[in-house]
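Risk register update: the risk of archive-format incompatibility is retired. Evidence:
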Amino acid sequence: MQFYGGKLKTIRKRERWTTIALSEKCGVTRQTLTLWEKGKVIPSEEKVRLIASSLNIKVNEISDMDTNQNISGRDLSGITGTLISMAKADLSDTTKQRDKHIREIQNIYREQEQIALIVKAFLNSMQSILYVKDTKLRYIIVNDAFQKTFSLEGYTIIGKTDRNILPAHDAKLNTAEDQMVLSTGKAVVNKEAFIVGTRKRKWGLISKYPIFEKGKVIGVMGNIIDTSKQKEMEFIQQLINSTMHKMDASLAILDLSSNKLLYAAGKGSEIFGNEQSVKLDDLLNTWLTTIVHPEDFRNRCALVA
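Archived output:
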């Protein structure tokens, strides 16, 4: 990690923070903060985020770290600073305040755990494939449908990229499309294509959306609806139609309970057109007079008579 101590000093002065006030806020000595600003010592990632939160700036203004930040880090920064200052005071006077802030910390963690469980349950209830990536195209959220579709049940996906979990060619295609969404800020909506990375080739409607924060793209969300079964049925229907035409044959499926024509193929579609409701007697009469050879029809009528 690179830390920009000079920028920290400039921003601190601009925001009118003294070294004493900021060092106490961060829970370090004034000497340590001075060493950070001179670039002689690099603070931990946790401290860098705490500095950025205290100065109300983005963490990438003073380092090369990602702007992604854990919710608890933001919520607890003020309380942490209070507890540190309280630790230096007389214990007998601050016990009640200390207990109050500890309870606040516990409540924050408890609420976040509940929210996380609710969000996880919601995402896993979705039948469509869903994932979220950060600006470096690392997965930060995937649902159960994602792991099942790509045969990754039991594998750790969070923090990995397509190159870690998909075949090389598929990883290259998916990464390129996600990168385009990140760089342009334009969504891909309901693109009908093969789902890259599936061991058994699947077809789907693919959508990818940029995630914005304060006008800046900070990630991409992918949503894929598996339409493989629908595609298979369309293919089978096309195959039946093609076969029936080549055989110069006809096919019609009638629902006798409602006298509705459910399906027509080959010559059947030419005969009945777009009819939705056909009387059984009319259907049989049309079928016999149109499809059966006249000689056969007359012979059949003679036999019946």
